[in-house]
Amino acid sequence: MIKQNLTAIEEKNQIYLIDDDESVRKALKRLLGSYGFPAAVFAAAEEFLDVVPYDATGCLVLDIHMPGTDGFQLQEQLATLGSRLPIIFYHRR
């Protein structure tokens, strides 16, 4: 999966999607792709931080509630690193 994500990272208009629910990741990746937006998917904030440089361009679509590092904690970490990546937060019930 990480190899696929690294390939996608090189594209313009990259969307990074982080959600701990695999079915949500698959569905949103498919939806975004149907509109022509490349989406690199990650199961956890830590996985995203290991792969994507802090100065990446694009947009982050981020689940607020996840095990481990949650969406708000990731936002704080990225801000501390100087990231200017815009973030769209969401939460499923």
Task: Describe, in short, the structure shown.
This protein has helices at about 1-10, 20-35, 45-50, 70-80; strands at about 15-20, 40, 60-65, 85-90.
Strands, count:
4
Kindly report the name of the CATH homologous superfamily.
Answer: Response regulator
Low-confidence stretches: none
Q: How large is the radius of gyration?
A: 12 Å
Provide the succession of SSEs: HEHEHEHE
Q: Which architecture name does CATH use? A: 3-Layer(aba) Sandwich
Approximately what portion of the residues adopt beta-strand conformation?
Answer: 15-25%
By DSSP (H or I, 4+ residues per run), the number of helices equals 4
At the first level of CATH, the class is Alpha Beta
User: Main sheet: which strands, in order across?
Assistant: 2-1-3-4
Helix content: 40-55%
Give the integer mean of the pLDDT values: 88
What spatial form do the alpha-carbon principal axes imply? globular
C-alpha end-to-end distance: 27 Å
Kindly report the CATH topology: Rossmann fold
Strand-pairing-aware structural class: alpha/beta
Largest sheet: 4 strands, parallel
Number of domains: 1
Record keyword descriptors for this entry.
93 residues, alpha/beta, Rossmann fold, 4 helices
Q: Could you characterize what this model shows?
A:
- It contains four helices and four strands.
- The protein is α/β, with parallel strands linked by helices.
- The protein has a single domain, classed as 3-Layer(aba) Sandwich (Rossmann fold), CATH 3.40.50.2300.
- The protein has a four-stranded parallel β-sheet.
- The mean pLDDT is 88.
